[in-house]
Design brief:
Structural class of chain A: alpha+beta
Helix content of chain A: 10-25%
Strand order of the largest sheet of chain A: 2-3-4-5-1-6
Shape of chain A: elongated
Radius of gyration of chain A: 16 Å
Oligomer: homodimer
Strand content of chain A: 35-45%
Number of helices of chain A: 2
Chain lengths: 123, 123
């Protein structure tokens, strides 16, 4: 038995993961230090290297946070009035995007989720 | 003639735009100050409010930059060795995401592009 050699169409392994989550306890969505810790723990869980970060808090308690990674970026935006969080991970290389997204979902107490992943276009 | 009232399924107007672009002149992809100016000009072109930013430069000249917006975020990651840039815009509210994405594409001299837009899940 001979198997054809596999062809790596995208050696950069560029993937865009998205998570839309409705959480059980909206208090987490207005807690910027906790969300920062959640993103950092999730990034590390997936083997990513954190290079920088930017967080903002809004008047209604909503939080936006972005980690710049050596392997692209991980962001969260929260909508406490809807118990909603949107998480985006653009990943490249060998980090485990699925582990990162699921770690965030678990740590924010997601009870309803929509997760997508797609390859980005590389020429 | 009576028309049914329109139903706004997502009053947040949450949209995820992506742009994968191959550029004519890769020199722009290693020029962090220029990319910062491109993102800021594009965000303003689409009516977004810039709240913060984080930029990193890599050893091979690649640049990662993120603007935190009052209406979510705008990011760029460049791959100069492939003349490639990946741009992501998560947008909410009344900003013009299409204008932002196309402004970035034009200002970096994109000659091949793949643009996508999809609504995020809101409960």
């Amino acid at each position: 038995l001979q198997l054809a050699p596999t062809i790596e169409l995208d050696p950069l392994r560029l993937r865009l993961w998205t998570l839309d989550a409705r959480v059980a306890e909206p208090a987490v969505l207005t807690d910027a230090p906790r969300l920062r810790a959640v993103l950092r723990a999730a990034a590390e869980r997936g083997g990513a290297t954190i290079l920088g970060e930017e967080f903002c808090e809004f008047g209604n308690g909503a939080v936006t946070g972005v980690l710049v990674l050596a392997q692209s970026h991980l962001s969260i935006h929260t909508w406490p009035e809807r118990a909603l969080a949107n998480v985006d991970l653009l990943s490249c290389g060998s980090i485990d995007g699925e582990a990162i997204v699921f770690e965030v979902a678990e740590r924010i107490g997601a009870e309803q989720t929509r997760v997508t992943c797609r390859a980005r276009t590389v020429w």
